[in-house]
Every structure is written in structure tokens, then in C-alpha cells.
Amino acid sequence: MPDQLPNGRHGGPAAVTRVLLVFAAVGAVLAALLTVVGAQDVVPGRPQAAPTTTTAEATTTTTTTTTTPPPDPCTVKAASLTLRHKLAQLLMVGVDPRGSEDALNVVRAEQVGAIFIGGDATGLLTGGLDVVRAAATLPLVVAVDDEGGRVQRVEMLDGDMPSARRMAQDMSPEQVRALARDRSTALRNRGVTMDLAPVLDISAQPDDAVIGDRSFSPDPATAATYAQAFAEGLRDAGTTPVLKHFPGHGNASGDSHQGAVTSPPLDALRQADLLPYRDIGRYGPVVVMLGHIDVPGLTGGLPATLSPEAYGLLRGEYRFGGPAMTDDLGAMRAVTDRVDLPEAVRLALAAGADIALWSTGGRTGEVLDHLEASAASGTLPAARVDEAARRVLAMKGAC
């Protein structure tokens, strides 16, 4: 079909050629215009606009914050004490119960952390403690052993308590807790802050044996239940309880007041005497007293009070984190037949005790001199002293 020109006219090949040339010229012009429009004005030295992106770019900033825990206040408090004052806080010294003079002298002279009142405490517990406590620069622990039955200190002032065995036979745990709460109130009103009770030993010995009726029961579960009630009652009214005598005196041979004592082997203790110490947290905040007991398979012929392995058992297997204290280092032949008092105190503290008790009084300066020399020589490690001081200060609310 022939080419048809606009206006309906038909032309030959020359006309077609002219049309193609026109289209080519128009195309060239359009291309030039597009090049101009798309081009950016680029001037040397002028900042150019950043390219536009269609995808938002998120910037993430990671900040690492390091929080330093606050220092332990008991560590700070212990560090503020002189070595001698720190060592003195680890001592519980027996004082004359007939009046305040002896106790006042030992507190003023050496700032001991605790005093023990034995015997007939009527004189010191009828107003004599106020001046003694006022002389202490840190809170003073005032301790008695008031278990009930054969072992009491304030029965003439505040009434008689039955023995532990009698309590378990005649009273419910709730009644024992109430009895201990009443006794604790009386003790606190007289200035006492710690009771070396309850006995956690299990024993079927006759009443008058060394433990005997001081034990709540030969059954570990019953003994634990009643000891817990007694401890809770003491603490309800603000007196610190002391569980005794770890790792178990109730089935031992002999009386540590009179000489060496040996318990059944450790494996046997785990099946009986040590059962009340399982789940030791049930008793709440307490102190644990170690007895002068040689335990085959544990203490290697030493009394538990001087044995690092005995303290290790208490801290490790039985997971006790509170203060541990010794039985009397000054009046019980299981220790005194073996070693003199200053060295007995050093051995006990180095082994793991936090409080060293002697009921006989006196020799406080001599003991502290020996401990200072031992700390200087390394036979009483500084870390052990600091650990014990932290526990004692925390127990007393001194930090």
C-alpha cells in the first residue's frame, strides 16, 4: 500500500524521506533537553547534596554500664578497728557475777566483744550491767547459759524452767516457744543479749549424765522441733540463741569437763546426732557452739573446737554462715589438759571459730598479746581474723 501523507495526500519516496528526517531532528532535540534536565549543576568547591535513599537506615548505640556494688559495711567497720580491738571483739570472757567491778574492768581495759556470766548472777543482773555496757565502744554481748533444769542462771530472779527433756515430754512446741519468749523478755530486761541454749544434742542417757535431760529427745526430729521452738521464742524477744554442741555430744563417751571425750565415728553421727543440723536455716539467725569432742574420721584426735575439719564440716556440708563459737576453753580439761589458754584461743580462732569463750576470766591481756604476736607471725592469718570480726560485728548489729 502506498504511503499516505497528512491531509490525505499521497507522496513518493522523497516525501517519506523528509518525514523521517523531521522525526530524527525532533528526537535529537528531546534527547538534549533530557540531558540538561537530568544534569546537576556541579560547581567546583561547592558541597554536593547527599544521595537520597529509599530505605531508612537505623543507627543503634550500645551503652555498657558497670555497676560497682557498695562495700560491705561490716568489712568497712572491721577495717576501721586496730588489730588489738578487732581481736578483742572475738573474745567472750567470764566475769565475776557478784557485781559490776570485774566486768567493768575487762571492758574498759580491752574492749572485749562479749562477757559471760556464770554461777549465781543475781548481783550483776540486778542493775549492774548498765555501767558495763556504757563502757563499751561497740555493742557488748552479754551471755548466760540458761537452758532450764540443771543449767539455769536467773531462776531465783525470774522463776524456774523445766529441763529440755521435761519440756518435750509435757509441753507442745508452741508452749515451749511461749516459755522461751517469756524467759527472753526477762533476760533482755536485765541486760542479757545471748543465751547459750538450746541444746541440740540427742541423748537417751540418764537425766544426770553429762547431757542427759539437757537433751530434748533421743529422736533427732523431736529434738530439732523443740530446739527450733525454744530458739524462736528467745529470738522473739530479742535474745540470740546458741545451738550446742556441734557435731554432737549426746552419745559421746565421757565428760569434757573432766577429760577427753570421743564420739561415735563421723558416718554414725551423720545418721543420728548430726540430723538436727540439717536444714540449719530453720532455726533462724543463731550462733553454733562446737563441743570439745574428738570425732573419729573427722578431727584426727583433736577436740572439735580446735579442729579445722570440724568447722569445715559446719560451713560446708551443713552450710552454716553465722558465727561459730567454742565451748569453754578455760575450765574444761578436754582442752586444758592439752594446751594453755592463750594458745587454745589461737588454735580455735585459726581453725575457724569466730568467738572464743573462757568462763574463768582473767588473762585477757595475756591472751591478746599472744594473738597479736600470732597475727604478726602469720600463725593466726589476717584473713581469718577479718572473717571472724565481720561475722561478730554483723551479729551484734554494729555495722
What does this entry look like structurally?
With 399 residues, this protein is an alpha/beta fold. It has one domain (85-396): Glycoside hydrolase, family 3, N-terminal domain (TIM Barrel, Alpha-Beta Barrel), CATH 3.20.20.300. It is built from 15 helices and 8 strands.
Number of strands: 8
| Structural domain count | 1
Regarding CATH, which class? Answer: Alpha Beta
Q: Total helix count?
A: 15
Summing up helix and strand content along with how strands pair, one would put the structural category as alpha/beta
CATH homology superfamily name? Glycoside hydrolase, family 3, N-terminal domain
Approximate helicity band = 40-55%
Mean pLDDT: 87
Main beta sheet: strand number and arrangement? 8 strands, parallel
How much beta, percentage-wise? 5-15%
Radius of gyration: 42 Å
Q: Per CATH, what is the topology?
A: TIM Barrel
Strand numbers in spatial order across the main sheet: 7-6-5-4-3-2-1-8
What would you say the CATH architecture is? Alpha-Beta Barrel
Terminal Cα separation, in Å? 115 Å
Give the SSE string: HHHEHEHEHHHEHEHEHEHHEHH
The 3D shape can be described as globular
Runs with pLDDT <50, length 5+? 1-60
